[in-house]
Amino acid sequence: MSKDMTKPLLSVRGLTLDIPLARGTLHAVRGIDFDLYRGETLCIVGESGSGKSLTSLAVMGLLDKNIQRRAERMDFDGTELTRASNRQMRALRGDRIAMIFQEPMTSLNPAYTIGDQLIEALRLHRSVSRDTARARAVELLEKVGISAAASRLGQYPHQLSGGLRQRVVIAMALMCEPELIIADEPTTALDVTIQAQILRLLVDLTKEMDVAMILITHDLGVVARVADKVGVMYAGELVETGPAAEVFGKPMHPYTRGLLRCIPQPGMTERGGELGTIPGIVPSLIGAVQGCAFRTRCPHATEACGGEIPVRGEQSHRFLCVYADGARSVEGEPA
Amino acid sequence: MSAPVLELKNVAKTYRVKQGMFGKPKPLNAVNDVSLSLGRGEVLGLVGESGCGKSTLAKILLGLEEPTSGQVLVDGEAIGGQDRLALARRIQPIFQDPYSSLNPRKTIADIVSLPLRVHGVGDAKSRAKSVRETLELVGLPARVLNTYPSQMSGGQRQRVAIARALIMHPEIVICDEPTSALDVSVQSQILNLLNELRAEFGLTYLFISHDLAVVEHLATRVAVMYLGRIVEEADVGDLFDAPRHPYTRALLNSVLTPDPSLGVPDTQLGSAYPNPISPPSGCHFHPRCPFAETLCKTKAPRPVPRAGGHVECHLHDPDSTMYRPDFTV
Amino acid sequence: MSVKKTTAPLMEEITGPTPRQILRKRVTGHTGLLFGLAVVLILLFVAIFAPLLAPHDPYAQSLSSRMVSPVFLGGTWEHPLGTDHLGRDYLSRLIYGARVSLLIGAVAAAISGVIGTAMGVAAGYFGGKVDAVVTFLINVRLAMPVVLVALAVVAILGGSLQVVIGVLGLLLWDRFAVVMRASTLQVRRREYVAAAQAIGASTSRVILSEIMPNIVNNLIVIVTLEMAHAILLEAALSFLGLGVQPPTPSWGLMISEGKNMMLFEPWLVLIPGVVLFMLVLAINLMGDGLRDVTAPENRS
């Protein structure tokens, strides 16, 4: 397998997801673009209903049948995912693309031991003996920090704690040495201390094994600590994308800045002081959606926001706003 | 500090858990000898991992569970001696999930007026007025009176839940993870609202949360709970700036502030949370503690006073062989 | 008293339809429910206004006009559905028979519904010993064959409308208890129940006004199922001669009386059989439909 480092592993252009409903078409995802290189971690952050989970399912080809997927391009290492057959997608899933879900209980089958499930995950895609697969399972369980790995193989998912289960899920995702891991809120169901452990594990393993990762989350803290690249999603659009240091250091889109002001930041927000807010709610995406979807909640909205929204910024750090500086100067932020 | 409005004296709650069909029931000490006191207007943040007993403690305070031993005092009166209605007038809850905490078959007016009807306060007209005023207080227009919870967003529902809690003008509000089910932008609105309401009415909050950034923001004092015990309690500044207990330190370490220059922290908490049915010997925290010594496995640490509270750790006990006065974690 | 800066949520935020609007929309779009409801309502109408609708006295015998064929088999409009072996007008007996069927179905379902709901809700709400006792009683009841017990009781007490209703009412509560127990268990864990308890609401208030409204949709479904069940059992008992006694017009009895002539005059069995089938089918469709339309709406 040739590994071209200059070409993105996954390149998505103009991904659109439409859900036909009785009341009209719900434009859940509206033309998003992103590139992901090998070994890179992209965090897609957004609130509920922003379309971030659907985006990950669209890449995996796991959308409900009624959702219409369109894209100019969804290139995974030379394979065009929009034209891939079900058979091709099944061969990719779990092998070269692995997925980690929020609730580890749903991705582990309660009726089988974790050993069986780990071995099966490998033997589904590789013709290896049970013993080889078993050895690999033990190796990976140790790698994800599970002690007495060999004896754990005979245990059932319900015998493990939530944190251990998520470690098993990660080990399972790594069985076939995937090139891309898609993790949808992998730590939301876990306690804070376990969350830190699991995230650390994911970051270390993806770096060590040169795996690319798309991590879907609503938690800006997770994004800042884990991401190489950030995509801020709002109402079906990536309103700002860029390297983590730049997006957090100099957030351009008014929504990104609004979100960052909403969370208490120790040392920066005054204890007991007032937090920033974003008034209003996400607009309905049913029917024709025009202009900037954030304009109903944006303090700087003008008439121009209802029209065509230009893409601003340089190649790596881009955002969608009618203001050339994302209204930073209006808010008195340094340019 | 003024006379405490809420006091817990050696409160314990033990469940008997059956293991298997024929197993002998084993005791589970969900809350183990907890003493706390809250002054008027204070916000006590209660933090800890799931299963540490913080929700059981909340249920005891709300009168939904009977403590196995110990006393809960409100304004110096034991609540065992008061009837349920009197307790309900003084302590009210706000729950985590605004989708589950409002009855889907009732209108907002019904939900918010329920406390008034249960307590037989006023007539229909004065109740309606009171409901309108309380809704306005939490930022909801009177138009929502005849709508149902399913028509509202998560933030609006949580406002309704707050209105229901406040309509009887309680002194103490138990906030059990009130914002963890909400989106970031809505969470800050609710936190601001809780803060404003406290300032306006001198409310006392017991604020249960797993989000330490939120606790640091809102609380005046913090209690850290581990396996049913309060292992450290201190004023918010002291606790966050100089945590004494190794567990507190680990919790603070695990907070992910949105700072991309920092990586994911190492909490140094090796193993998983222990099974509360068979807690570790000595100090319950010793299997996960990077500073544990032999003493920790055999002897449970006693509470040692510190500013605004106490800490349970041999490292801070002057009578212990492990005492290290200079130890700051 | 006012809190200053809290952003008042925009009115546009309240966008969703009311539960009633959702219900209306679901009902009008559900063919099965509408069909079932229509058939049941028509039969109910027929049963209530039987004296006005029946062309003849259902008990009046006429030896001169026995076994008259229905109009579609060459009979006359004098007896549209013909007459039976005693010369009684078949249509009139069918119309009066609807009364018996619906009465037995409704009352038996009501009696068993009250017993089963009380037991199930108590078991689900209080748990512990109450739950253990109720679960034991459910198991005992499930171990008894309904038809055999009903046969034995009717054989001892003698068949009559009251006895049949009483026996079925006391036997068919098991499904109510099982379903209501499970539903209550589910609902009582919701935080609004804890909120009501923390307000100081009494146990009866919590059960009646917080829990019941949220499980009543399941109750309605079981009522329809058990109604259909009771109607079929009545027909079976009457067919065996142990249910409603002659000459009371009952569909089960009509089938029973017609069975001797089945080979020569099959319509004697077919007509009440088809009507019985239609009623039970309609009630079941109605129950299925009610379950669909009252299912809790999705969050999104």
TrEMBL record, chain B:
Q: Extract the SUPFAM superfamilies matched here.
A: P-loop containing nucleoside triphosphate hydrolases
- Is ATP-binding found in the keyword set? yes
- At the top level, the lineage of the source is Bacteria
User: Got a GO cellular component term for this one?
Assistant: plasma membrane
Name its GO BP terms in alphabetical order.
peptide transport; transmembrane transport
Question: Which PROSITE patterns is this protein grouped with?
Answer: ABC_TRANSPORTER_1, ABC_TRANSPORTER_2
Question: Sorted alphabetically, which keywords does the UniProt record give?
Answer: ATP-binding, Nucleotide-binding, Transport
Localization recorded for this chain is: Cell inner membrane
Q: Which organism is it from?
A: Antarcticimicrobium sediminis
Any idea where the ABC transporter domain is? 6-252
In the bilayer, the protein is annotated as: Peripheral membrane protein
Q: Name one GO molecular function term.
A: ATP hydrolysis activity
Family, similarity comment: Belongs to the ABC transporter superfamily.
* SMART domains, per database record: AAA
Q: What sections of the protein cross the membrane? A: none
Q: Does the keyword ATP-binding apply?
A: yes
Gene3D superfamilies on file: P-loop containing nucleotide triphosphate hydrolases
Q: What is this protein called?
A: ABC transporter ATP-binding protein
